[in-house]
Amino acid sequence: MSSEAKKLFNIIILGVSFMFIFTAFQTCGNIAQTVITNLNSTDFHGSGYTSMSIIYGVLSASNLISPSVVAIVGPQFSMVVSGMFYSLYIAVFIQPATWTFYTASVFIGIAAAVLWTAQGNCLTVNSDENTIGRNSGVFWALLQFSLFFGNLYIYFAWQGKTHISESDRRTVFIALTVISLVGTVLFFLIRKQEDTKAPGDDDSTNEILGESSSFINFLHYFFAEKSITLSFTKEMMLLSVTTAYTGLVLTFFSGVYGTCIGAVNRFGSEEKSLIGLSGIFTGVGEILGGGVFGLLSKRSRSGRNPVVMLGILVHFIAFYLIFFNMPNDAPIAPMEGTDQIAYMIPSKEVAMLCSFLLGLGDSCFNTQLLSILGFLYSEDSAPAFAIFKFVQSICAAVAYFYSNYFLLEWQLLIMVIVGFFGTITFFTVEWRAAAALAARGSDYSSI
User: Fold this and answer.
1) pLDDT tens-digit readout, 196-234
2) Alpha carbon 431 to chain centroid, angstroms
3) What is the pLDDT of residues 249-268, one digit of tens each?
4) At a CB cut-off of 8 Å and minimum separation 6, what does 48 contact?
5) Dist. CA 222–CA 144, nearest whole Å
6) Domains plus CATH for the chain?
7) From CA 256, how far away is CA 340, in angstroms rounded?
8) Cβ–Cβ under 8 Å, residues 195 and 378
9) In angstroms, how far is the first alpha carbon of the chain from the final one?
10) Is the pTM of this model over 0.70?
11) Cβ neighbours around 301 below 10 Å, total
């Protein structure tokens, strides 16, 4: 197998592995608040929003050390161990207890930081300036199939249910735990590149591990970490606004919007199964966006900005329709749901259209962020992607926290404001990147 074929194989395996793990985790996140609402009449007292806030808060802090961990143990082993913690978190829902639920939330936050830093390193190592756009799109499309399969099961399994029984819950989460473990095992199929460097140094991971002073090396990586330096560069600070927006949107479509749909009593007996259908339509949007932008990356000569512009326009349309279609108290409705209406009688068709638009717009932003980070920081991929996940996850944590209290209109307004400024800052960085390419005589032809 040629070097290029091996790299593409690694990207596909990376995407498929993430697809399995996040089929389990994103389905879990999509239904967690609904499941927990049905548990709060028992001895269990927890909040899905609070759990997600803990996860993303810990994730953001853990990004300070995740490049060091990936440098020491290598990206492949980092992803395997992290995948095990994802499976553990999902398994907690089989027989949930408040203390195990929140403890697992802390551990998965740490694991997620390591997982995504290793993913960014693996993506960059297996790409170059000409293939980073394509590989980002391929990975993102494969990853977003995770929204399709798990939610399809939820849609059919919970059809006509207004209450989630203990048997229903256990069946779903046993299946999701097994799926997550399958994705974790697949990481072993990723083939090492001969020229793979450990993040932030010239030595390979094997050479680092082979030295007797590994603890001294760890301290070196920790205190000489390039993340702090990179985070204060003009490009990274500008991209951080765009990244912050993706964190807010991640919270909304992966947790809040599904909860809103499940709380609308006017949807009748379909309200719970519609949560799964919403996830499916979000996944279709993500897959379509990732696939199209990956395939077109070699043909586009106008760069990343048109894709990001499409993303913000699609999201603004979705927010407008959601504002008119969803009751304002839907995100914080009690177990009995809400009988309120917004500016129109709640429509299932409009709700599903908005799910699709949320996924399509999110793929526009994330594929282009992955692409531009891999292009700008090809030599410092681990710290660059650590900063990306730090900003994204801390904003997601904040959003999950205020989702316990804010009405729908305020959550939408926050996303509109941050999204507008995030688009402007992305444009600025992209124009600078285009100017840099032109200065050295390169053809500006990849998204």
Assistant:
1) 444 444 443 343 333 334 444 444 444 345 667 777 788
2) 26
3) 998 988 788 888 888 888 87
4) 29, 32, 33, 34, 35, 36, 255, 259
5) 33
6) 1-190 (1.20.1250.20), 220-446 (1.20.1250.20)
7) 17
8) no
9) 27
10) yes
11) 9
